[in-house]
From TrEMBL:
Residues 125-341 are annotated as: Domain III, AAA+ region. The keyword DNA-binding applies. ATP binds at residues 169, 171-173. This is Chromosomal replication initiator protein DnaA. The lineage of its organism: Bacteria, Bacillati, Actinomycetota, Actinomycetes, Micrococcales. The keyword Endoplasmic reticulum does not apply. It comes from Herbiconiux flava. Its main location: cytoplasm. The gene is dnaA.
Length: 469
């Protein structure tokens, strides 16, 4: 759709060839590119043409903005499967038709009424997978969910900051992204930025190293809604904390919303200055807890629906009763069960579920798996060196082994996506996200992958039991 634009040179066309359209959510057209350079080219040279081209799309799609996400792994992405026009996820349509709320917020941000405003949202770093639509509400998260919705509907008017804490895998990151999507759907010009604390730290360090402090400041201060994940990561990092302190103050003073997640409540966060912890307590503090059985069943049901998996209710109930600690683990179990059924071309029934779950060694909650064990076992299984997994080789065999190791780190540890990326030679969190999705999908399609993942994870758990015995 861009080829009619005279400014598009052959060189630029080359860059456009690297772009993979991913879909439309919350009024944003999501594109993936393999590196920062392509993203910059796109944003600097193509933005006006792309925005005007988006303006010619069917109104029903309600697209007014685009987001470019860097995913270095799309080099091995098969573009032929995705070359058709992107489709709007059904959930996104509902989100787009949400009635506007009357908080008066739109009037308070001048750019919210500008037609070109949405372009400001091209770097939100929001994950289209996490919306309020697919978040299941239960006793364990009802309050956090209500607070999150309130903040999205009236940024900086309801609670500022909103501080959400809780154990790993209980939906904090999901809520953060959902706030961002919902706020953008209500106020298309609102400038939103999601950042994990690891990325904030890296960004800060790079900005000092490259003398780009001004760009860093504007990235985090010229926004209306800052969503910062896993703040505990700033523990003991005095200079980054100082940078965050000033960012926070600037945003708060200018009536901009800050939402923070953490594994602990402010008063239990160690390695933070008091002035920082006090600020975390200015607004509303809420927690997410381990979901009860009904909520776990509902989460599995929703997940099965969204992945179009046919799983009878009694099976979902059985799975939910067996895996109780963490939603991420619960989702992992559902993937294993449905992958096994799909590979064997059998329906998901109780016998199959029992077989699969029997195969999955379960560990006590206090048995914590170290990522280094995952990497060692994966390397050993594939007869590769550990450095192969950490390194940058793109050979198919090494890349797949690396993606399996990333998948298992995601499934078996509480490490966040950026932390796993860092572990694997400083890769971007989107690379880990891609590996996780890819292996999850391949497990349903290729028996060899399913068997490899199951075997490696069992070896890791077996070894862990042996160590702690
Ligand atoms: N209530 C819920 N409804 C639907 N999905 C949920 C819910 N809670 C958690 N999940 C899903 O569980 C997975 C883990 O959630 P998430 O990443 O948000 O956890 P987290 O609390 O941020 O964990 P961490 O602290 O490790 O980053 C995600 O796929 C998320 O979509």
């Amino acid at each position: 759709m861009l080829s009619t634009d005279e400014r598009i040179t052959p060189q630029l066309k080359g860059f456009l060839g690297l772009v993979v359209p991913k879909g439309i959510l919350g009024g944003s057209f999501y594109l993936e590119v393999p590196n920062d350079f392509t993203r910059d080219m796109l944003e600097q040279r193509v933005r006006p043409s792309l925005l005007s081209a988006l303006g010619t799309l069917d109104d029903a799609l309600a697209v007014s903005n685009f987001s470019v996400v860097v995913n270095p792994d799309i080099d091995d992405y098969d573009r032929s499967t995705d070359s058709s026009a992107p489709v709007v996820a059904p959930a996104a349509r509902d989100e787009l038709t949400q009635p506007a709320v009357t908080s008066g917020y739109a009037e308070s941000i001048p750019h919210a009424q500008e037609t070109v405003g949405p372009a400001r949202n091209n770097d939100t770093r929001l994950n289209p997978k996490y919306s309020f639509d697919n978040f299941v509400i239960g006793g364990s998260n009802r309050f956090a969910h209500a607070a999150a919705v309130a903040v999205a509907e009236a940024p900086a008017k309801a609670y500022n900051p909103l501080f959400i804490y809780g154990d790993s895998g209980l939906g904090k990151t999901h809520l953060l992204h959902a706030i961002g999507h919902y706020a953008i759907s209500l106020y298309p010009g609102v400038r939103v930025r999601y950042v994990s604390s690891e990325e904030f730290t890296n960004d800060f360090i790079n900005s000092i190293a490259n003398n780009r402090g001004a760009a860093f400041h504007s990235r985090y201060r010229d926004i209306d809604l800052l969503l910062i994940d896993d703040i505990q990561f700033l523990q003991g990092k005095a200079e980054t904390q100082e940078a965050f302190f000033h960012t926070f103050n600037t945003l708060h003073d200018h009536n901009k919303q800050v939402v923070i997640t953490s594994d602990l409540p402010p008063k239990h966060l160690t390695g933070f200055e008091d002035r920082m912890r006090t600020r975390f307590e200015w607004g509303l503090i809420t927690d997410v807890q381990t979901p009860d059985l009904e909520t776990r069943i509902a989460i599995l049901r929703k997940k099965a629906q969204s992945e179009r998996l046919r799983v009878p209710d009694d099976i979902l109930e059985f799975m939910a009763s067996k895996v109780s600690s963490n939603v991420r683990e619960l989702e992992g179990t559902l993937i294993r069960v449905t992958a096994f059924a799909s590979l064997n071309r059998t329906p998901v029934d109780m016998q199959l579920v029992q077989t699969v779950l029997k195969d999955l060694i379960t560990l006590d909650d206090d048995n914590v798996i170290a990522p280094v064990d995952i990497i060692n076992h994966t390397a050993e299984y594939f007869k590769l060196s550990v450095d192969d997994l950490y390194g940058s080789s793109r050979s198919q065999a090494i890349a797949t082994a690396r993606q399996i190791a990333m998948y298992l780190c995601r499934e078996m540890t509480s490490l966040s996506l950026p932390k796993i990326g860092q572990l694997f030679g400083g890769r971007d969190h989107t690379t880990v996200m891609y590996a996780n999705n890819k292996i999850g999908k391949l497990m349903t399609e290729k028996r060899s992958i399913y068997n490899q993942v199951t075997e490696i994870s069992n070896r890791i758990k077996h070894n862990q039991r042996y160590k702690s015995a």
